[in-house]
Amino acid sequence: MPIARDQQIPLVDRLSELSGGSYSPDVRRKYFISGPQWAYAYEGHALFHAPTREPVPFEEVIRALGEIGIPCWATHDTDVIPTNDLMTDRQTEIVARIGAALKSNGVRCSMVTCETFHHPVFAASSAAEAPEVREYSARRLSNVVDIGHELGANFAVYWPGTLGYMIQGAIDETQTLRWFADGINAACERDIIVAKERGRDTLKHCLEAKPFEPVSQIILPTSDAMLAFISSGLLTHPEMVGLNPEYLHELMWGAACRAALARAMLCGKLWHFDINDGYPLKHDVDLGVGLVNPLDWLNVLILLRSHNYEGPFNLDFKPPRTTSNHGVFKISFPTAVDRFITLWEIAGEAIDDPVIKQATDALKAGGGASGADSADDIFAANRELLSLHELIAHRLFQILIGQHKGRIFG
Ligand code: 3MF
Ligand code: MG
Ligand code: MG
After folding, report:
1. Which of 5, 178, 258, 337 is deepest in the core (most CB within 10 A)?
2. Based on the number of CB atoms within 10 Å of its own CB, is 30 exposed (0-12), middle (13-18) or buried (19 or more)?
3. What are the residue ranges spanned by the domains of the chain?
4. Which residues sit with their C-beta closer than 6 Å to ligand 1?
5. Looking at the whole model, is its pTM more than 0.90?
6. Residue 3 Cα to ligand 3 middle (Å)
7. How many angstroms separate the alpha carbon of residue 273 from the centre of ligand 2?
8. Which residues have their alpha-adjacent CB atom under 5 A from ion ligand 3?
9. Are 231 and 238 in contact (CB under 8 A)?
């Protein structure tokens, strides 16, 4: 039987209730989760897609985050301020309105980011050959630092989506990287001045890599490339610059995201993390966290919990194109948060699991071979222990689906 239009929202609400397992807003607020303006307000548009949803102004996004229990909000400058109003009195007015909306909904601005990919001024990237484009970029980046301090943010993120090309040969990559560094340096230098004036800490400036899309070749395609860039000597304040890896961006080039995060952590640069889901070696589908790779996600969170990652988890996903504005509010955002919290808590259980603990300890203890120079003796002494790797993997699966608590199918 067709579901009449006026019955559809009640049906969605009833089935959401029935599905259960959701956390209260107060519980959700205990986690360092941010909801980006652009994710909540995503209208369903893309290269081959016209919008399917209504625009959502920041007042409504911030109100919804407050009601759902997402404690932080993040934004690009142009998500909330029209390009031609940036750096004018209009910007001051809008930022004041944002501050008031955050305050009245009990939401905090954790991160600001400069949009350097959508407006045609950035058609040749923020580090284009034309000097006036680069001067404008430096002003925009510095302006975002000002907005960040005004709104109380602690992080600034930079995704250089157009720093590259469709067709190679026309630009010299080494030159482009030097110019890109000039922009980041301008932001850091501005930050040092503003932070001092306001008696605040400087922001954490986080670089976000993506292997391709919108341009086919991005010059800084992976988190590892970003790490090399940070330590290249081109930055005047490398200590102020770290990473914002995105789960799917690493998967897009075929990485083990967990290993990419481990490398960033070892460099002391894992500061901010965009969370979502999708498929390896495909485009940036930005699905909600845990919907495709829950076991991989569990493993990622085990790593982060084991190493006391304390940065934000930014819900950089796109509510599916067919979802209504009500669906974004009622299903997309709350369920993404709840899957994240569930996986985070399960990760805690896995870390404390006695089977995994004993297996890991045994692997580290080794078999105690006596002949230190004999490959055969060492191999023989350890022969049975390596089976524990697969047992650990099975145990993680059991913990993920609750089988360690006795759930079996008859
Ligand atoms: C693109 C992204 C971006 C960045 C954002 C923050 C629109 O794939 O992931 O989201 O996260 O620009 O700098
Ligand atoms: Mg992102
Ligand atoms: Mg993405």
Report:
1. 337
2. exposed
3. 24-328, 354-405
4. 38, 113, 157, 159, 208, 210, 246, 274, 284, 316
5. yes
6. 34
7. 8
8. 248, 284, 286
9. yes
